[in-house]
Design brief:
The chain is mainly alpha-helical. The protein is 62% helix and 2% strand. It has seven helices and two strands, in the order H-H-H-E-H-H-H-E-H. The chain has a two-stranded antiparallel ribbon with strand order 1-2. Helix 2 runs antiparallel to helix 3, helix 4 crosses helix 5 and helix 4 packs parallel to helix 7.
């Protein structure tokens, strides 16, 4: 009788232990699910905010005129492209151009941006350029790599270390950017009048630089 009772007690103890473990696993699974749900929500919110940021919507008339001019740079095609851009410019939805990423971080020295700040600005610019390329050419593969961020950091440092009152290009900085994977054909120099400035102002400057390329 005692042996039977002991066996029952052992079974009951194992069952209790297994139940406790099962409850712990369930609680852990619930916690992980809640964390996963929160992560999904954060990503969804970020995606929504990105989708609501300023966009460059090029009409098909402009894209088609550009493709035609690219293939045949005749005066007639040049005039058609100019007219298409003019019509687009006169009828642009400016409300979509004033929703820049909000980041009030103060930037006192543009030559001393962190890699994270350079990456964020680069991703924003890449996203805008992708919109243009996708509309005109149907492709949109633009990548911002770690080497690109490193190269831009080095190029910026090179500019800050030189005397450049006339705002000339420093092609030696492009050639010697400190990486083996990036190769630069040209650059677009921009100017910020306000010092200090903010990240939001830099985002706006990037947008204006790209959109003004069409004019």
């Amino acid at each position: 009788m005692t042996e039977t009772l002991t066996a029952q007690q052992n079974v009951a103890l194992r069952t209790s232990t297994e139940l406790t473990a099962a409850i712990a696993v369930a609680a852990d699974a619930k916690s992980k699910k809640e964390e996963a749900d929160k992560a999904v929500k954060r990503l969804e919110d970020k995606l929504t905010s990105l989708e609501n940021l300023s966009t460059i919507e090029i009409p098909e008339e402009v894209a088609s005129a550009y493709r035609n001019f690219y293939e045949d740079k005749s005066e007639a095609n040049k005039d058609k492209l100019f007219d298409a851009v003019q019509t687009w410019w006169d009828n642009r939805d400016y409300s979509k151009e004033n929703n820049y990423p909000v980041d009030d971080t103060v930037i006192n020295d543009l030559s001393d941006l962190t890699k994270e700040q350079i990456a964020n600005l680069s991703l924003y610019q890449a996203g805008l350029i992708q919109q243009v390329r996708k509309t005109i050419w149907g492709d949109s593969e633009i990548l911002v790599t770690e080497d690109v961020v490193t190269a831009m950091k080095n190029i910026t440092t090179a500019y800050s270390n030189m005397s450049n009152p006339d705002g000339d290009h420093l092609f030696s900085a492009l050639t010697n950017d400190g990486t083996d994977t990036t190769h630069w054909k040209a650059e677009n120099l921009g100017y910020i009048k306000a010092k200090p400035t903010t990240m939001s102002a830099l985002y706006k400057g990037i947008y204006k630089s790209i959109i003004n390329t069409f004019w």
